Amino acid sequence: AVDQALAANNAQGLAAAAHAIKGAALNLSANRLAVVAGALETIGHHGELDDAPPFVASLHREVEQFLDQLT
Description:
The protein is mainly alpha-helical. The chain contains 4 helices and no strands.
C-alpha cells in the first residue's frame, strides 16, 4: 500500500498505510520498523512526497530484517 500510494502521488494514502504499519510494528515490538513507518506517516501528513523514497527503501529493509529475525 505504501508503494502504491507513493506511485499514485497520494499523500493521505501514504500516511494511512504508514500508520497501519507503525501500529502493527509496535504490537510486534519491531521498534525500528515503527520509527521508519512513523516518519513516512509524517511525510504523508505534510504532503512532502518528494522526501518519501529513501524512507520507503528503509521501510522495505526494516521489514526484511524483521522477517529474517522470525526465522
